[in-house]
Amino acid sequence: MKISLTVNGAQRAFDVHPGDTLLEVLRREGYKGVKKGCGAGDCGACAVLLDGRAVNSCLVLAGKADGSEVLTIEGLSKDGALHPLQEAFLDEGAVQCGYCTPGMIIASLDLLTHHPDPSEEEIREGIAGNLCRCTGYTKELRAIQAAAEKMREARHG
Amino acid sequence: MGLPSVKEFVRPGTLDEALELLRERGERAWPIGGGIDLVLFAPREVEAVVDLGRLPLRYVRENECRISIGAIATLREVLESPVVRDYLGGVIPEMLHQVASPLLRNLATIGGTLVSANPWSDVITLFLALGAEVVLSDGKARTIPLEKLYPARALRGTILTEVRLPSSARESAAAFWKFSRTAFDVALLNCATFVRMVGGRCVEARVVAGGTPQLGARLPRAEACLVGSGLDDASIERAAEAARESADVREDRRASADYRRELVLVGVKRSLHEARGRLAGGER
């Protein structure tokens, strides 16, 4: 079957098997920043924004995304400039092996878009579906706090 | 990965169209809300997926009698809805914050959650305590208590379109309690309580325990200890004890039956104290 998606702002049409997941389609089409981890909705490595909300793309049947807007980690930087979340993850050293990072950043983006000034508790809950086996989450937490501040400043000029 | 047996993915725009598709394709067709359980459990016989995501069932609204939640509303949409924010002291968002992860709550629908009937479901445990009803349609709509939907009746050819919660009566309160190893894990046990008081006496009580490891179920012996009481410490104690004795707890890989029995006692007690505190905190 054919589906059409807006991926990172670009209109795309894909031929998919009706049983494919969105994760399989995105990776097959070259969006390798979307990682496959557990394949069962536990680890969050495959997170993408689907119509503005972060979901586990391993659990979304591709047909369900037909007509939707998808944002992957590849779509975050603008004209070569990193997104504040990406910068903050670098600055705070919130990356070790890096496998969970795209999903972690996408989940954080959903959080900060809807809660620009989250408490520590809200940040912890916001990334509760993203497993990181390297860092212990402390540096991610700091990075998300730093990015939130930057994004608020940018918003208010 | 994926569902190799699936040959067809359809997205009806109306309920009639969806029912027609399910009728035509019979046992090979699966209706989905978010589709999570279908992908996770991937039953081999599924050839046609009927995505209900485009049906006009994505709402949370209220009138003077009830709150109505459309089957396709995601757990996140319910969690963030102003309609349920203050309902019975905010017990619905309190519970939903403890369900799975934000990523999963963005995908899971309320209808899918009720129909999938995963035995650890926090939503079902609380909604049973709240006296929820569900609207089913097979071409003709009928409303039944959520309790009557279980044990997992054959819903083939039928679509759950809406869940309804009675408007909160004066002097009523509810609370939810869950015990799990991590914030993200499913419950080793969950429970929910609802009480309604008139003139300082409890006239209606529902006590539910779930993930026992079976699906949430009411505990009538515990409820009987509350009705007629003033919800004093002694009656809460008696209700919690009755819950511990009467809950059908069993062992599975997550916990032993004995451990769960103690959890029922603690959970029911804490949940009732919480509900009583909410009564004292003002009418909702």
What does this molecule look like?
The complex is a heterodimer of chains A (157) and B (284). Chain A has two domains: 2-75, Ubiquitin-like (UB roll), CATH 3.10.20.30; 84-156, [2Fe-2S]-binding domain (DNA polymerase, domain 1, Orthogonal Bundle). Chain A has five helices and five strands, in the order E-E-H-E-E-E-H-H-H-H. Chain A has helices at residues 22-28, 84-91, 101-114, 120-126, 138-156, and strands at residues 2-7, 10-15, 47-50, 53-56, 69-71. In chain A, helix 2 (84-91) crosses helix 5. Chain A is globular. The model of chain A has no long low-confidence stretch (mean pLDDT 96). In chain B, 34% of the residues lie in helices and 24% in strands. Chain B is globular. In chain B, strand 10 (189-198) and strand 11 form a beta hairpin. The longest helix of chain B is centred in the C-terminal third of the chain and has 24 residues, at 257-280. With 284 residues, chain B is of the alpha+beta class. Chain B has helices spanning 15-25, 36-41, 75-80, 82-85, 91-96, 102-105, 110-116, 122-129, 220-226, 233-246, 257-280, and strands at 8-10, 29-32, 48-51, 60-62, 66-70, 133-137, 141-145, 159-166, 172-179, 189-198, 201-210, 217-218. Chain A binds chain B through residues 1, 17-21, 23-24, 36, 39-42, 44, 47, 50, 53-56, 58-61, 63-64, 66, 107, 110-111, 124-126, 128-130, and chain B through 1-9, 11, 32, 34-36, 38-40, 49, 51, 53, 76, 97, 100-104, 106-107, 183-184.
